[in-house]
C-alpha cells in the first residue's frame, strides 16, 4: 500500500458532501451526519443546511425550549435514546445536537433550540441527551462551541466576553457535558470570541476542551464556519463541514512546514475513533415508539403560568367552549432553519380537545399565520365568542417571527393577535390563553383580565395531545421556566449590548445573565426562573444538611403533595454566597430534581454540594477558587419562591496562589512566607500612619509591591524578587 500523500490527508479532514465524511478506506468508512437536536433531518448524502430541502420523515420531538422546561433528566435521557433509535433506523452515525448555548437575551432568534439561561440546567439536560443518544451507538454533537448567543451577524461577530463570564456562564454547560457524558463529537461555532474564530481557537479547542476537560472526541466546524482551513486544523479542529474545496491550503501549509503533519494525522485518528464508535453493531433493541416519548416530553414541558381556578376546564356537555386561533388547528410545533424536521404526523390540539371533552367545542380561526391581517376572521371570532361560556385562545409566534438566522427585535405577539385579545376581553367571557412560541414573549402587557395562561412553547408533533390534556385536566402541568420572563424587554441584562453592532458584541452583562441579574437587583419580573403552577400544591419541609468533609455536603428535604391530584414538583437548590470579597449573583442554581407525587404522598429528595458549587472563576489566577465563609443553601419552587434555608460554612479550598511581582501588599499578607517580611515594610512607614492617615494605609495595601520600591520605603527590586521566589519555592510553584 502506498503512503498517503499530503493531498490524501488534507482531503480527509473535510467532509465529502453536505452530510457525509470522506470514504478513507479501511477504518475510515464514510459517516452520515444529520441535524438535528429535536428530530432527524436526514437528507441522505446530499442536501442543504438551511431547512429548505425535504428530508426523510422522522418524529419531531419537542425542541430544546420545551425539553428545558421539563426539568426532567430521566425523561430527557429517554428522548435522547429515542433520537438515537431514529438515527439507527435511518443509518445516521452522527447527530448534530444538542444545541446548548445560553439564552443571553429573550430576543435570540435560536432560543427555541437552546435549553436555558442557566448553565447548570443546560449542562445537566444536555448530558442526559448525550447519554441517551450515545447509548444507541450514535455520536452526539453538542453545539455551538462556544458563545454563539445570537444570530445577528453570527458568521462574523466578535463576542467580547470576560474570562469569568466565559467560564461560569458560557462554557460551564459545555464543560459539564464533556466531563459527565463524554460526547464523541463537538461542533465549533461560527462567531469569533475575543478576536479569534471559535474554529481557529487553540485556547478553546486544545487548552480548555481537550487539555482541561479531557474531551477525547472529534471537533467539527459549524456548516461553513471555517475561515482559514490550515489555521483551523492547526488549532485543533478535526473536520471542516461541509467541504469548502480549499484542502489545497492545508497541503500548502504542510509543504511549507507551517503545519505539522502530526497535527493532521491526529485529526484523522480522531475520525477513525469516531467511525469505530458509531459503526459498532449494538445489541440494543429500539425503545418504545418515538411518538410516545415525544408525547410524554411535551406533557412535562407545558408550563402553567397563571390560573385563577378556571383550569382544568369543566367537562359538562352544556358548557360551550369556543376555541379561537389558527394555532389550535395548525400547530406551530418546531422552529425554523437547520433543525426543521419533516414530521411523521402532526396532532392538532383542537381535534384532541374534541375527543377528550364532553363540552361543546366550537372553533374560530381569529387570525392567519402569515404576516397579513384578516379583519373578517377577527370579527367572526368576536361574534362567536359573545355566546360562549369560556374562550380558549391559542396565541403565539408564527414561523416568520422567529428562526435560526436572525434575532427578534421585540418580545411582542403579532399585533393582530393582541388586538383580537383586547376585543375578546371586552365581552366578559372567561379567557384561557394557550401559547406557542419558541422564545419568551411579553405577557405582562396583556395578562390582566385573562383567567389562565398555559405556556406551550413549541412541543413537537405530538404537542396537540399534551396541550388538550392539560386543558381538560388529564395531565397535571409540571413544566417550569428554564428562563425568566421579564416585565419589560428593557429590564433584560443584555438589553443595551445585544446584539452589538459593526460585527462586535460586548458582553457587558458579564456573569449576570437572566435571574442572576433580576434576583441580584430585585428587578420585578413577569415570571421568575423556575416558576410553574400545578393543579395541586406541594409543601417543602425537613431540611437536613450534612457535612461530608472536603467541602462537600449533602442536602435533603421532604416534599409532600398536599392537594387532591397527582402531580410533580421541581425542587430547586440554589446556593448564595455570603462572603463579600467577591461580587457574585445573589444566588445560583446548583441542583434540581423533579419528583412525581400522588395526592397526599411525600418523598425525600437529596442533593450533593461539591466544592465547585461554591467556587467562582478567578480571572487573575485562572482557576476555580473556593473562598472561605458562609454559604446559604436554599430549597425553592422558583428562584423567587425559596421555601427552606440553611447555612454551611467552608474553610475555603486552602490553595495559596503563587505570588507575582505585581501582587499587592494585601496579597502578600495572605501568603505565609511574604507575610513575614511585612513587618520590615511597615517599619519603613512613618510611625502612627495607620491612625493618622488610614487612607494612605489603604492605598499602600492595594499597591503592587514592586511599585512600592520607588516610594522610599527601603524596599528594593531585589528584595521583591527574592521574597516572591522564596514564597513560591515554599509552595513548589513557578512564579507566574
Ligand atoms: C447550524 C447548525 C447545523 C448546521 C447543519 C448550521 O447553519 O448553525 O446548527 O447543524 O447548519 O445544518
Tag the structure with descriptive keywords.
736 residues; alpha/beta; TIM Barrel; Rossmann fold; Immunoglobulin-like; 4 domains; four-stranded mixed β-sheet; 24 helices; globular; binds beta-D-glucopyranose
Structural notes for this entry:
The chain is α/β, with parallel strands linked by helices and about 725 residues long. The protein folds into four domains: about 5-280, Glycoside hydrolase, family 3, N-terminal domain (TIM Barrel, Alpha-Beta Barrel), CATH 3.20.20; about 290-525, 3-Layer(aba) Sandwich (Rossmann fold); about 540-650, Immunoglobulin-like; about 665-730, no CATH class. It is about 30% helix and about 20% strand. The longest helix is centred in the first third of the chain and has 18 residues, at about 75-90. It is globular. It starts with 5 loop residues before the first helix and ends in a 5-residue tail after the last helix. The model has no long low-confidence stretch (mean pLDDT about 95). The structure holds beta-D-glucopyranose. Beta-D-glucopyranose binds near residues 49, 96, 222 and 223.
The helix/strand class is alpha/beta
Instruction: Write down the Rg.
Output: 28 Å
- Major beta sheet summary: 6 strands, mixed
The total beta strand count reads 26
In angstroms, what separates the terminal alpha carbons? Answer: 50 Å
Give start-end ranges of low-pLDDT stretches: none
The helicity comes to 25-40%
What's the mean pLDDT score? 94
Content of β-strand: 15-25%
Q: Rough shape? A: globular
Order of neighbouring strands in the sheet with most strands = 9-14-13-12-10-11
The CATH superfamily of the largest domain is identified as Glycoside hydrolase, family 3, N-terminal domain
From the 3D structure, determine the CATH topology of the largest domain: TIM Barrel
Helix segment tally? 24
CATH architecture of the largest domain: Alpha-Beta Barrel
Provide the number of structural domains.
Answer: 4
CATH C-level class of the largest domain: Alpha Beta
List of distinct ligands in this structure = beta-D-glucopyranose
Amino acid at each position: 500500500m502506498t503512503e498517503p500523500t499530503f493531498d490524501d490527508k488534507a482531503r480527509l479532514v473535510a467532509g465529502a458532501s453536505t452530510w457525509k465524511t470522506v470514504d478513507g478506506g479501511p477504518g475510515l468508512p464514510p459517516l452520515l451526519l444529520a441535524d438535528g437536536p429535536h428530530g432527524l433531518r436526514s437528507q441522505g448524502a446530499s442536501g442543504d443546511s438551511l431547512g429548505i430541502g425535504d428530508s426523510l420523515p422522522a418524529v419531531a420531538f419537542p425542541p430544546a425550549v420545551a425539553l428545558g422546561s421539563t426539568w426532567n433528566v430521566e425523561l430527557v435521557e429517554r428522548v435522547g435514546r429515542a433520537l438515537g433509535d431514529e438515527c439507527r433506523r435511518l443509518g445516521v452515525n452522527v447527530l448534530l445536537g444538542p444545541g446548548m448555548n445560553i439564552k443571553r437575551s429573550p430576543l435570540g432568534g435560536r432560543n427555541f433550540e437552546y435549553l436555558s439561561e442557566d448553565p447548570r440546567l443546560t449542562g445537566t439536560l444536555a448530558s442526559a441527551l448525550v447519554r441517551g443518544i450515545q447509548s444507541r451507538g450514535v455520536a452526539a454533537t453538542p453545539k455551538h462551541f462556544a458563545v454563539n448567543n445570537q444570530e445577528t451577524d453570527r458568521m462574523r461577530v466578535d463576542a467580547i466576553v470576560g474570562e469569568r463570564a466565559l467560564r461560569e456562564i458560557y462554557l460551564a454547560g459545555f464543560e459539564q457535558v464533556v466531563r459527565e457524558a463524554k460526547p464523541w463529537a463537538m461542533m465549533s461555532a461560527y462567531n469569533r470570541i475575543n478576536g479569534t474564530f471559535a474554529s481557529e481557537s487553540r485556547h478553546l479547542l486544545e487548552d480548555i476542551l481537550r487539555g482541561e476537560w479531557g474531551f477525547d472526541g472529534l471537533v467539527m466546524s459549524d456548516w461553513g464556519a471555517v475561515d482559514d482551513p490550515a489555521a483551523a486544523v492547526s488549532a485543533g479542529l478535526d473536520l471542516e463541514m461541509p467541504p469548502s474545496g480549499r484542502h489545497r491550503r492545508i497541503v500548502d501549509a504542510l509543504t511549507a512546514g507551517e503545519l505539522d503533519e502530526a497535527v493532521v494525522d491526529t485529526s484523522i485518528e480522531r475520525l477513525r475513533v469516531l467511525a469505530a464508535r458509531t459503526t459498532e453493531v449494538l445489541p440494543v433493541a429500539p425503545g418504545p415508539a418515538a411518538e410516545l416519548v415525544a408525547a410524554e416530553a411535551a406533557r412535562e414541558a407545558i408550563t402553567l403560568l397563571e390560573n385563577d381556578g378556571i383550569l382544568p376546564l369543566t367537562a359538562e356537555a352544556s358548557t360551550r367552549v369556543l376555541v379561537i386561533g389558527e394555532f389550535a388547528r395548525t400547530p406551530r410545533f418546531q422552529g425554523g432553519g437547520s433543525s426543521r424536521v419533516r414530521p411523521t404526523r402532526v396532532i392538532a390540539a383542537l381535534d384532541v380537545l374534541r375527543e377528550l371533552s364532553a363540552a361543546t367545542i366550537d372553533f374560530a380561526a381569529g387570525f392567519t399565520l402569515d404576516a397579513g391581517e384578516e379583519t373578517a376572521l377577527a370579527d367572526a371570532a368576536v361574534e362567536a365568542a359573545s355566546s360562549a361560556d369560556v374562550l380558549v385562545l391559542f396565541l403565539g409566534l408564527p414561523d416568520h417571527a422567529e428562526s435560526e438566522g436572525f434575532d427578534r427585535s421585540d418580545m411582542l405577539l403579532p399585533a393582530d393577535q393582541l388586538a383580537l385579545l383586547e376585543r375578546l376581553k371586552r365581552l366578559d367571557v372567561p379567557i384561557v390563553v394557550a401559547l406557542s412560541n419558541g422564545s419568551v414573549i411579553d405577557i405582562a402587557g396583556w395578562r390582566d383580565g385573562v383567567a389562565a395562561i398555559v405556556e406551550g412553547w413549541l412541543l413537537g408533533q405530538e404537542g396537540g395531545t399534551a396541550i388538550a390534556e392539560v386543558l381538560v385536566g388529564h395531565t397535571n402541568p409540571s413544566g417550569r421556566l428554564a428562563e425568566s420572563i421579564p416585565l419589560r424587554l428593557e429590564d433584560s441584562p443584555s438589553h443595551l449590548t445585544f446584539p452589538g453592532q459593526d460585527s462586535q458584541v460586548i458582553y457587558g452583562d458579564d456573569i449576570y445573565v437572566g435571574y442572576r441579574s433580576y434576583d441580584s437587583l430585585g428587578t420585578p419580573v413577569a415570571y421568575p426562573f423556575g416558576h410553574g403552577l400545578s393543579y395541586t400544591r406541594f409543601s417543602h419541609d425537613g431540611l437536613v444538611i450534612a457535612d461530608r468533609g472536603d467541602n462537600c455536603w449533602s442536602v435533603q428535604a421532604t416534599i409532600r403533595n398536599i392537594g387532591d391530584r397527582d402531580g410533580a414538583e421541581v425542587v430547586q437548590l440554589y446556593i448564595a454566597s455570603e462572603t463579600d470579597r467577591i461580587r457574585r449573583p445573589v444566588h445560583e442554581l446548583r441542583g434540581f430534581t423533579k419528583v412525581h407525587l400522588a395526592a397526599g404522598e411525600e418523598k425525600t429528595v437529596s442533593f450533593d454540594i461539591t466544592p465547585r458549587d461554591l467556587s467562582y472563576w478567578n480571572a487573575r489566577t485562572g482557576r476555580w477558587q473556593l473562598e472561605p465563609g458562609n454559604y446559604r443553601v436554599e430549597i425553592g419552587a422558583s428562584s423567587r419562591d425559596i421555601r427552606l434555608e440553611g447555612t454551611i460554612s467552608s474553610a475555603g479550598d486552602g490553595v495559596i496562589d503563587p505570588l507575582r511581582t505585581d501582587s499587592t501588599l494585601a496579597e502578600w499578607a495572605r501568603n505565609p512566607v511574604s507575610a513575614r517580611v511585612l513587618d520590615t515594610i511597615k517599619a519603613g512607614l512613618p510611625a502612627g500612619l495607620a491612625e493618622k492617615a488610614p487612607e494612605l494605609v489603604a492605598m499602600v495595601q492595594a499597591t503592587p509591591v514592586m511599585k512600592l520600591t520607588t516610594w522610599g520605603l527601603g524596599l528594593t527590586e531585589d528584595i521583591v524578587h527574592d521574597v516572591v521566589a522564596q514564597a513560591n519555592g515554599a509552595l513548589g510553584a513557578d512564579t507566574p
